[in-house]
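Memo to structure team: turn this sequence into structure tokens by end of day. - J.P.
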Amino acid sequence: MHQMNTCAIVSLCVCLVSHCPSAAVLATEGPEPDDTSALQRQVDAAISMRKPVVLQSRVYRISSSIVVASRRANSVLGLTIQGAGVGNTVIVWGGSPEKSVFVIKGAKYGTVAGLYFKGTRALADLDFAGNGSSSNMKISTVYFENPATFSVRLGNPQDFSEVSEFSFESVASANATSAGFEIEGNNSLNENFYNCGCSHEPACVSNSPLLDPAAQAGGNFNWFGGSVSSTPDRTSDARHATFLLSNGATYNFIGVRVENSSTLFYTSNSSARVMVNWIGGMWYDWMAEESNNEIIVLADAGSFRSTNSVWMGKGSFYFGPHTISNEFEGDDFRLGKTGQVLNESSRNYFARVPKEAPLRLVDIRAERF
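Reply from structure team:
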């Protein structure tokens, strides 16, 4: 009988036997408990041959960083790391909490997809460095469950070159110890999240330099659809909020559902012109928050606009006295009875807004729940 090699490529290559000619050699399944060396060899070969890194439906046990970089150029154009799907291709980290699982340098116009991260604490699961310039990568159908400092870090204190225009699609982060997604560097701009989520973390997305020593504040991002729960996992401050915003820019949020997360936005830089558009959003907090809970903390110089959104919980917005404008149009404020976990009056939602702060309410509704 003759051994048959068959490989079909659509962006996903399935190898029926080893030595598939159209993809880099896959890491062997063998009895070896640590797959680090084999996977690093596979990655190096794939980049050298300009092929996708194709990961099998199996568990990969990693004990030191897998470096994804070209030896011939600053960038890896068309980098593709393709797993067999969440729950099928499982990356189990067992290395140092001060190291990252994948360190990816100069990636452009490529894809990372179909992976599930588990194991012990890491610095970051996917750690992207500009290496001159990194842009237009798509991260899709990836689930992060291990307690990494950051599930994804875009930019780092050692490399301030841009990591921009990244697209996240159906990506979820749980249990990160600082933030699910960290953006660093003034040139790391316009990251976009589609149908993504965070759960049980201090922050979901941050561009604050406070979370990473020696970091530079990151650029803007946008979030469309998806849901967030229990993030932040405690009372807010400069390190705990669903979205930590530190750089002056426009941020757009459309159709986002946030549950049991005490503070939605927090800005720590009083001079940054942070401009937030919250459209068709839902903020539901059934936790027993204190009456002085701050749903939004927007420092001076910024602006906030909410349109056709639902607010249901306990606490108040805070807008600095020198903010530019703060508007709610067509929003629905849900109320509860005395002793419940909801505000008793729509006025409670604005109790901490200074008289000097501009505030405009248009066609808002108060509904007792």
